[in-house]
């Protein structure tokens, strides 16, 4: 049985809903850490929706995934590799 | 020696990768280099923000409401260009032209709103030399705006081809490539918005 995917309109409505949720999360009376987790969680979810459905990455050739994965992992890895300097030389994140 | 296969849309593909048109492969290579450009910039922003103090106060002066409107505009333009691609697949040139026109207009609206936002910030004395936050702000959003301009030119050229049937049969497959690029521009903004305006 062929799998059905959500329509472009459905994905668009989801993206708009998530936009509202992301903005609302930023104004919640909660800790800064929780707010940041929610805001960036929503952003990540939106990015996955765009990539999977609008860019058709839900069903793409393995070569395309490889082309994307290498720079993505490098960019994330470079940022993570510099975090020890912040912890050691700057004493970690500043207090809110 | 074998001739590269020609899949849908007339774009040749690699002999041993017959289902990936070369144009699409090229676009993904280009986008992968763009991941490094924006990845480096966003990574530097995050690390500097963690290491340096005083950024929270600076970021309170950005216009979140205006940026939210721009996010709505860009997300909607992603929808309209994917609809243009669907119209191409359905063989409807006129419908593709309409969606491409709306995408171009939304892109121009995004730039207009961004210009209004810049004007407000500069009038309040927040320029690129006002501090590290503002340097990052103008660099990241400015580089993103340059990509929006590039996407508008690409989409407008395809709109012209669709509206006036300028070799449409030979170029219609490029709507998919323009869409990939435009969605990437949208993806960058999806992360820029919370980084700069909501955190």
Tell me briefly what this model is.
The complex is a heterodimer of chains A (96) and B (199). Chain A has 96 residues and is mainly alpha-helical.
Low-confidence stretches of chain B: 1-8
**Residue-averaged pLDDT of chain B:** 90
Domain unit count of chain B: 1
Q: How many DSSP helices of chain B?
A: 7
Total strand segments of chain A: 0
In the residues of chain A, how many domains can be counted? 2
Provide the β-strand percentage band of chain B: under 5%
Which outline of chain B best applies?
elongated
Which pair of chains forms the biggest interface, and how many residues does each contribute? A-B, 44 and 44 residues
User: Which percent range describes the beta-strand content of chain A?
Assistant: under 5%
What's the SSE pattern of chain A? HHHH
Main sheet specs of chain B: 2 strands, antiparallel
* Biggest beta sheet attributes of chain A: none
* Termini Cα gap of chain A: 53 Å
- SSE class of chain B: mainly alpha
Strand order of the largest sheet of chain B: 1-2
Instruction: Estimate the global geometry of chain A from the Cα principal axes.
Output: flat
Mean pLDDT of chain A: 87
How many helices of chain A does DSSP assign?
A: 4
Report low-confidence residues of chain A grouped into runs of 5 or more. none
């Amino acid at each position: 049985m062929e799998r059905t995917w959500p329509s472009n309109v459905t994905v668009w409505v989801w993206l708009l809903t998530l936009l509202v949720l992301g903005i609302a999360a930023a104004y919640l009376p909660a800790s800064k850490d929780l707010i940041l987790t929610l805001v960036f969680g929503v952003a990540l979810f939106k990015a996955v929706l765009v990539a999977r459905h609008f860019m058709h990455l839900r069903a793409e050739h393995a070569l395309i995934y490889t082309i994307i994965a290498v720079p993505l992992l490098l960019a994330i890895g470079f940022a993570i590799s510099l975090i020890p300097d912040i912890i050691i030389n700057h004493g970690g994140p500043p207090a809110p | 020696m074998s001739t590269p296969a020609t899949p849908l849309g007339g774009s040749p593909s690699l002999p041993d990768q017959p289902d990936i048109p070369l144009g699409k492969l090229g676009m993904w290579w280009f986008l992968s280099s763009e991941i490094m450009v924006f990845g480096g910039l966003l990574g530097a922003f995050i690390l500097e923000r963690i290491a340096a103090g005083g950024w929270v106060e600076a970021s309170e002066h950005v216009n979140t409401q205006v940026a939210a409107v721009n996010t709505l505009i860009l997300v909607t333009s992603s929808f309209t260009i994917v609809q243009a691609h669907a119209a191409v697949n359905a063989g409807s040139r006129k419908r593709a032209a309409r969606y491409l026109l709306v995408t171009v207009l939304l892109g121009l609206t995004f730039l207009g709103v961004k210009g209004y936002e810049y004007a407000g910030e500069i009038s309040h004395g927040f320029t690129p030399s006002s501090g590290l936050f503002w340097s990052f702000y103008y660099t990241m959003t400015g580089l993103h705006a340059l990509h929006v301009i590039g996407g508008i030119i690409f989409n407008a050229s395809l709109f012209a081809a669709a509206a006036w049937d300028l070799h449409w049969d030979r170029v219609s497959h490029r709507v998919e490539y323009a869409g990939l690029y435009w969605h990437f521009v949208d993806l960058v903004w999806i992360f820029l918005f919370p980084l700069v305006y909501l955190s």
